[in-house]
Amino acid sequence: MNFFVRHGRILALLSLLSACTPVITARGQQPAPEVLAEIEIGTTSRRDVERTLGTPSTQGVFRENVWYYMSERTERTAFFNPKVIERKIVAIVFDDAGVVEDIVTYNENDKKEIELVSRVTATTGNELTFLQQLFGNVGRFSNE
Questions:
Q1: CB contact set of 36 (below 8 Å; sequence gap of 6+)
Q2: What is the pLDDT of residues 40-99, one digit of tens each?
Q3: Is the CB of residue 37 less than 8 Å from the CB of residue 100?
Q4: Per-position DSSP letters for 24-75, written without gaps between them
Q5: Residues 41 and 101 sit within 8 Å (Cβ to Cβ)
Q6: Within 13 Å, how many C-alpha atoms sit on residue 5's CB side?
Q7: Where are the domains of the chain?
C-alpha cells in the first residue's frame, strides 16, 4: 500500500507540473525567406506568386491588388489568456497588369492601436415609459 501512495503522490505532482507547461500554437502561413526571395519585383506574375507561396490568407479590402500572408505564434500557460510571441504579415502588392510591384513585411512593432468611438446615434420618436408601453394598446382593437 505504501508503494501506491508514494507513487500516486509523485504522479499527482508530475501532472500538476505538466499543466504549467506553456503550449505554443502556430497559425497561418509564413513564407520561408528563401522562397520569398524567389519573387522578383517587376517580373513575377500573380499566378507565379500563387504557385510559389500558395493562396493568400486574405486579400486587400480597400485595395484589391494586395495579397496578405499572415502568421502568428502564441503561447498559453494553463488557463491564462494566450500571449502573442510573434506575428508577421507579408503583403505582396500587384500593379494593374498583375505583376509584383512591391513586397512589404510587417511585424509586431508595426501595429497601431485603434481607439473605438462610443457615440450613440439619436433616433426620432417618443420615449415611452414602462406603463405607457404596457397599457398603450388597451382599447385600440375592436372585435370585428
A1: 53, 90, 103
A2: 999 999 999 999 998 898 898 888 899 999 998 889 887 788 888 888 989 999 999 999
A3: no
A4: EEEEE----HHHHTT--TTT-BHHHHHHHH-S-SEE-SS-TTEEEEEEEEEE
A5: yes
A6: 2
A7: 22-112
